[in-house]
Please model this.
Amino acid sequence: MNKANNFTTIKYSLCVSAVFFSILWFRSHLKLAVKQLSTLLSMKKIFAVLIVLGCIGTTIKAQISPPGLGDANNAFWGAFGIKQQLDSLGKKQALSYVAIGRKSSPDHHNLFSKQAIIVLNHEVYHSFAPHQQYSYALSYRRQPQYESTAPYDKEYTEQEFRIYGRYAYTFDLGKRWKLKNVIRQEFRKFFDADFHKAEEDFQLRTRIKSQLTYNLSPKNNQKLALSAEALFSISHLNDADSEWTPFGYREMRIAAYYILTIPNSPFTVDLGYMDDLIRGSRSIHHGGVHYLAADLIWNIPYRKRQ
Model:
């Protein structure tokens, strides 16, 4: 990566706090390797790498990860969620959130330029055994699609209904480090703006994610998290021949988050950066789509019913 690209990325994506300079260092050292994974390695080799990554990762319970917003230079993701304890033992939780996404056009870096997505999501978690957790969720998404050539006007709107299940295993490494690896299976059904058939009928997608979390300080429960997630999918198309696309690797998402609890409040704030490396996209040639992300979580404790 040359210095010009570094300065451009810093200027338009990471200039929010000193935390993001460390994120840039992390991304610049991993970007080339990730790009090579998507273009050079076979499917078996990709899965082998993910298994290795599975030994060095974890997810954050309250963090709301950005979705893919398509090809762009930069993007913004913001979410507000309500997380509720469902039992007195803390083994069952529910997280509901509403979120929006904005993104730039391919020819500039204004990450708030175009509407990208609206999301409504509800997920229930169950820690059923030591270090093990499963969850299931229902989601609705409304996402404008834009033309691929200038002036990149809006072409149509796509609606999506999604259900997914997730299994996670956690490792505790001393007092400051946590490890959790997640496999997530999704079913995605698509419609146009009027609930008619879309070009893509439905999709089956598998996601494998690893994330490493470090407890920075007990004051305000401050944490730093780094993650890598690979996405594989197969789609059924709405055409005369009812064709299926080949199952394969689609994208890699690398992210870094700073998490803290607001003092004397039930709220948790997550500030993050994500680099979305989309296979075969225009953006992958200049380092992927660079996201600035923020979410606010309202934590509600368990209340016994009278």
